[in-house]
Specification:
By secondary structure, the chain is α+β, with helices and mostly antiparallel strands. It has five helices and seven strands, in the order ααβαββαββαββ. A five-stranded mixed beta sheet has the order 2-4-5-7-6.
C-alpha cells in the first residue's frame, strides 16, 4: 500500500506539469477564437476535461501525501458555519433546507481547523449531491461518552440528509479510493475524509437507508 501510494503520487506529479501546459494553451486558444468561432465549444469542452483531470491529480496527491495536522484547541461548533459558507453555492442549486442543532455546552477538542473544515465540506457536498431536487440536511453536535474506562469520549458531529441513500452493497466500499457512483465524482472525497479523521485519532461512521437518506457521524476525541 505504501509503494502504491508512492507510485500514485509519482504518476500524479508527472501528469501535473504537462497538464498545466495543455490547459494554458487551451485557454489561449479559447481567448483568441471568440465565441462565434465554430471550434469554440470544442475548446471549451477540452478545458473542462483538463480541469477535471487537474482536480483528480490534486486529490490523488493529497491522498498519497497527507499533510501532518497542525492541531489547536477549538470548539467544533466554530468550524461548522465556515464550512457551510463554503458549500452554499452548491446547496443553493437545489431546494435544500439546512437545519443546525449545536450543543451549546460542547467541550473542546484538538484539531487542525482547515482539515476538519475540509471533512465537513466533503460530507456536506455529498449530502447535497444525494438530494435530487428538494430535501433537508441536518447538522447536529453532541457528546458521546464511552461506557467503559477503556473507551474514548467523543465530540460527535452528525450530517444527515434526506437523499437517495447508499445501497447496502456499496456501504463497505465507500471509503475505498476511486470508488464512486457519481458521473463526475473522483471517489477520493470520503477516503481523504477518513484519513484526516484517523490522523486526529477520530472515527467516521455511516448509516444509510436506500431512498430515505444517509447520516455520517464524525467522532473526535474530547480533550
Amino acid at each position: 500500500l505504501v509503494l502504491l501510494g508512492q507510485l500514485s503520487a509519482g504518476v500524479a506529479h508527472e501528469i501535473r506539469n504537462p497538464l498545466a501546459a495543455i490547459n494554458l494553451n487551451l485557454q489561449l486558444m479559447k481567448r483568441n477564437l471568440g465565441e462565434d468561432n465554430k471550434n469554440f465549444n470544442y475548446i471549451k469542452n477540452a478545458i473542462s476535461g483538463a480541469e477535471r483531470i487537474s482536480r483528480i491529480v490534486e486529490l490523488t496527491l493529497n491522498f498519497s501525501r497527507p499533510a501532518t495536522p497542525k492541531v489547536e484547541k477549538i470548539n467544533i461548533n466554530k468550524i461548522i458555519p465556515t464550512a457551510l459558507d463554503m458549500v452554499k453555492p452548491i446547496i443553493k442549486r437545489k431546494d435544500i433546507e439546512i437545519k443546525v442543532e449545536l450543543d451549546e455546552n460542547l467541550p473542546d477538542t484538538a484539531v487542525d481547523t482547515k482539515q476538519i473544515q475540509q471533512v465537513f465540506i466533503n460530507l456536506l457536498t455529498n449530502a447535497s449531491d444525494a438530494i435530487k431536487d428538494k430535501g433537508t440536511i441536518t447538522i447536529t453536535t453532541y457528546v458521546e461518552m464511552g461506557n467503559r474506562a477503556s473507551e474514548n469520549n467523543y465530540v460527535i458531529t452528525s450530517i444527515k440528509d434526506t437523499g437517495s441513500g447508499i445501497p447496502s452493497e456499496d456501504l463497505q466500499k465507500i471509503f475505498n479510493p476511486f470508488f464512486t457512483r457519481k458521473t463526475e465524482g473522483t471517489g477520493l472525497g470520503l477516503p481523504i475524509t477518513q484519513r484526516i479523521l484517523h490522523q486526529h485519532n477520530g472515527v467516521i461512521d455511516v448509516e444509510s437507508n436506500l431512498n430515505e437518506g444517509t447520516c455520517f457521524y464524525v467522532k473526535l476525541p474530547i480533550l
